[in-house]
Amino acid sequence: MNFRYLVRLMVVCATWLATSLHADLVNTIAQVKPSVVIVGTFKATNSPRFALRGTGFVLADGSAPGSNLVVTNAHVLPKPADEDPDTALVVQVRTSGPELQMRTATVLEVDSLHDLALLRFDGPAVPGMTLRDSDTVHEGQSVAFMGFPIGGALGFSPVTHRGTVSSIAPAALPTPSAQQLNAQAIRNLRGGSTFDIFQLDGTAYPGNSGGPLFDPNTGVVLGVVNMVLIKNTRESALSSPSGISYAIPSKFVAQLLQRRQPK
Questions:
Q1: CA-to-CA distance for 67 and 124, rounded, in angstroms?
Q2: CA–CA separation, 109 vs 59, rounded Å?
Q3: Which domains are delineated in the chain?
Q4: H/E/C letters for each residue in the chain?
Q5: Residue 249 CA: distances (Å) to CA of 5, 60, 111, 165
Q6: Rounded-to-integer distance, Cα 256 and Cα 262, Å
Q7: Which of 38, 118, 70, 73 is nearest to 248 (CA)?
Q8: Could you give the CA distance from residue 77 to residue 234 in angstroms, rounded to a whole number?
Q9: CA-CA distance, 151 to 51, in Å (whole number)?
Q10: Rounded Cα gap, residues 162 and 132, in angstroms
Q11: Is this structure's pTM higher than 0.85?
Q12: One digit per residue, pLDDT tens: the chain, 263 residues?
């Protein structure tokens, strides 16, 4: 085979593959976007009345096309000490158009160890995302995640980032000295409750917490982006925290769902 022809063929194939992968992500973003919500609080006497606390995503409930269930990080929820009877937990969802609609939300389950929470919001159902077993995820696998970075400073349009799973590693690392242990790391180590998380080479920001980590080709959920709990445990030994991002594997979301099933 002519060498120049072979090189030309390789360039054409590479271009086709890159174009195909890009098209897959474009289609997947359109599929995922309606399921990604803003989690926050609303108080009529505040200015502004709505305060963004993080991202969440609607999770498919059985075979129904829509759902009222939202998964987010537990740390996104207001702390009990900060609860105010005049302040409501809410989510903002997209309906048929670009406009956001505010819905009151209720906490159904909380998994403090894995920093996960399951909510239910009022009103009509919204298209939901499906889970995939995170034990099938491998290092080097392409992923994407969507959310509202920097607390909505960039606006209330969801932002998508693409990256790879750079490592699957324990959530908590041993520290060189007791002075560098934080409270969360101590609780995890004392309870023998370390678990594996996904380390990502894509950059997430505050506000991305609770957003879905998903397969860029199919849109199935592989994990939940986490910007607080994991950094507090894994990077507690660092004087300058890194820009590395993390995600909680989706198998812990599946376990959270099982807890609400009738016994």
A1: 8
A2: 14
A3: 33-127 (2.40.10.10), 134-259 (2.40.10.10)
A4: CCHHHHHHHHHHHHHHHHHHHHHHHHHHHHHHHHHEEEEEEECCCCCCCEEEEEEEEEECCCCCCEECEEEECHHHCCCHHHCCCCCEEEEEEECCCCCEEEEEEEEEEEECCCCEEEEEECCCCEECECECCHHHCCCCCEEEEEECHHHHCCCCCCEEEEEEEEEEEECCCCCCCHHHCCHHHHHHHHCCCCCEEEEECCCCCCCCCCCEEECCCCCCEEEEEECCHHHHHHCCCCCCCCCCEEEEECHHHHHHHHHCCCC
A5: 45, 17, 13, 11
A6: 13
A7: 73
A8: 22
A9: 9
A10: 18
A11: no
A12: 555 554 454 444 444 444 444 568 999 999 999 999 999 999 999 998 999 999 999 999 877 778 999 999 999 999 876 778 889 999 999 877 678 899 999 999 999 889 999 999 999 999 999 999 999 999 999 999 999 987 766 678 899 999 999 999 888 755 444 444 555 555 555 555 678 999 999 888 888 999 999 999 999 999 999 977 776 666 665 555 566 889 999 999 999 998 876 55
Residue type at 214 in one-letter notation: F
Six token digits for residue 14? 């590479």
